[in-house]
């Protein structure tokens, strides 16, 4: 059954008068001429829509409205990496259409909808309701990250997808510059954290494909098999670089029992039955053979990077660029993230 548009504002963001014939042509199916669109809530950076008609459902990704940070919201990059990883052993959604701006006025892409569970702040009823099932979920999630880092970038056509040499130095500079572009006040903790990171970059790991935002709500779990990841989502920050940058982010996202929640980071790993951070690191280390002795640096960097992301979301939300979504007190969250990062370096 077709799903109708949410509102005229949704139609403005999706431009169905141009998107519908483009989909019909790309898929060879005129039923897509009757497509409708609905915003999926929960997106913090780019906007995600379900496109539906009698032929089925697809997913559209596009940048938010308003001014965009340099190098952020790169839809062409997302589409390219998903196409390259198709068949690699890393589960990704099939991209059916990508556009450089002719359809919506901004770059966008459309992928097939992958069925399964996106787990945010709660588990679906009856899903992974035992300790063994939750452990299976966790190990599937960690093993998928190892699979990403094990991809031969040259073999899949991503040899020029980034420059692994000097990756962490550039990352510290990049996110520092984006902080300066989006901050609304001086935050002493962010200044000090940025200074320490720049001064203490460790020796690099062998270069790999990195996701850039690998967390539990950026994968789709199989609805019947808790130990299977069906697709990895949200590749906008992917590149070639230091794989421990992903593991450091995962440590930030992997909340344990009794820890305070962080705005913008939903999760269930604090629930009974999920492994600890130490268990996750042990699983990753056993499969990857990387030197994890400097992991605390990467954890500190993760706090810094996510604080900048939170500041950017706060700025866009204030200007109405997030399609009316609200995300709470992100300014306070920025300071909390920076302070926590300082304890790790």
How would you summarize this macromolecular structure in one to three sentences?
By secondary structure, the chain is α+β, with helices and mostly antiparallel strands.
- CATH-defined architecture of the largest domain: Alpha-Beta Complex
What's the gyration radius in Å?
20 Å
Q: Tell me, briefly, the overall form.
A: globular
Task: Give me the CATH fold name of the largest domain.
Answer: Aminoglycoside 3'-phosphotransferase, Chain: A, domain 2
- Taken in chain order, the helices and strands follow as HHEEEHEEHHHEEEEHHHH
How are the strands of the largest sheet arranged?
1-2-3-5-4
Q: What ranges have pLDDT less than 50 throughout 5 or more consecutive residues?
A: 1-6
Report the CATH C-level class of the largest domain.
Alpha Beta
Biggest sheet architecture: 5 strands, antiparallel
Number of helices: 10
Gap between N and C termini: 54 Å
Give the DSSP E fraction (strand runs of 2 or more residues). 5-15%
Overall SS class:
alpha+beta
What is the helical fraction, as a range of percent? 25-40%
* Count of folded domains: 2
Tell me the total number of β-strands.
Answer: 9
Q: So, the CATH homologous superfamily of the largest domain?
A: Aminoglycoside phosphotransferase (APH), C-terminal lobe
Mean pLDDT: 91
Pfam family, one: APH
Keywords: Transferase
GO molecular function: transferase activity
Protein name: Phosphotransferase family protein
Can you describe what's shown?
GO terms for molecular function: transferase activity. InterPro entries: ACAD10-like, ACAD10_11_N, Aminoglycoside_PTrfase, Kinase-like_dom_sf. Keywords: Transferase. This is Phosphotransferase family protein. The model is unreliable at 1-6 (pLDDT under 50). 40% of the residues lie in helices and 12% in strands. The chain has two domains: 8-112, Phosphorylase Kinase, domain 1 (2-Layer Sandwich); 131-342, Aminoglycoside 3'-phosphotransferase, Chain: A, domain 2 (Alpha-Beta Complex), CATH 3.90.1200.10. The protein has a five-stranded antiparallel β-sheet, sandwiched between helices. A two-stranded antiparallel sheet has the order 6-9. It has a two-stranded antiparallel sheet with strand order 7-8. The chain has ten helices and nine strands. With 345 residues, the protein is α+β, with helices and mostly antiparallel strands. The termini are far apart.
